[in-house]
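User: Could you check the structure of this?
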Amino acid sequence: GVRVLRQDPVECLLSFICTSNNHISRITAMIERLCQAFGRRLCRLDARPFHAFPSLSALAGADAEARLRALGCGYRAKFVSGSARAIVEGLGAEGLRRLRAVPYAEARRVLCALPGVGAKVGAGMGRDGERGPAAGADGAARRQVADCVCLMALDKAEAVPVDTHVWRIARQRYGAALGGRSLTPRAHQEIGDFFRGLWGPRAGWAQAV
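Assistant: Sure, the predicted structure tokens are below.
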């Protein structure tokens, strides 16, 4: 099951960008290929090499997006490389870690300014034939990425990542009359607020159980 961790913010952010419109086995394989192609080799165990998560500079390179697409990252490639470049040119890895000391709303605001988190992913067919998220789900999906990073890497225990499963549970199990017929950004905020009101300042931990 899901476990609340305290991951490195850079690794957590770029990994969660890879989860967009994806499933666990494919995400795992995608991140493993990313580490093999861009990361420093750590060791070899039973003839299998293990690599560190790539540095920001490696993923911000001029050819990074094309290489990520070749590895099967699809439309996510430009958001992984774009976010890496935005962090290198902006607040830096240390600035990202310092978001642990600011309020939740401020940390989420900063994250949502990054490509693939706040910048629109966009619906429709990508250049590689892979379909991106539906337009109506796009804003809520981006907020989910930001909330996952806030919870798993930035010490924001009140952050509640909301996907369609959490939205359905809020409506069916708790009788919460929230949002409309789809998971919009407004519904995402309302559901997060509902669980924060129900479970208090560690609502993100409770949601993950």
